[in-house]
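Page 47, continued from p. 46.
Same chain as before, 198 aa.
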Amino acid sequence: MANILVVDDDKGICDVLREALEHSGHFVTVANHGREGLQRLMERPFDLVMLDLRMPIMSGFEMLRSVRGTLKSQVPVIILTGYASIESLFQCTELGVSGYLPKPFRLDELETKVRQVLEGGLPQVSTLNRSARQKLSAREQEVLLLMRQGLTDQEIATRLFISPFTAHNHVKRIMQKLDTRNRAEAVALSFVEDVFDH
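Result:
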């Protein structure tokens, strides 16, 4: 059993998370924006924070920056997001998050991610088995490095002197091989796990 703080402005998401986490035996506190989340963290300690990025009054990223900077807290944080840009995921990774849970999520994904983080598992983006991941080719690694810079398929194609269609196919194969569901998740995973040859 853990004390978990859920910070999200979407009441529906908060209700689902509260019900699922309490069903698993956890104690759940809900905050509707980053400033309220910070206030809850100052009132008492939590074992885990589940944090949305896009919220009014204070965003999840601003809250995370305050948690790590002002409060000097290393509480584990799982980012909840359906809209994250590659840049925001990179910034969150630099501030030390324990995982990402893309919206919409399945309840089994939620349970797996929470269990991994509470047990002190390595930060990872995908909740699926690492053995499902395949090694990236040299060209795919090149494309992924450009994806990390926030380049579009068209910009990657121009940079690598390939067609946009070919660039798009490389991006699709990267997501499949890394067992991720979208472009941002693949990029985020590349920052927290070693997916490149040395």
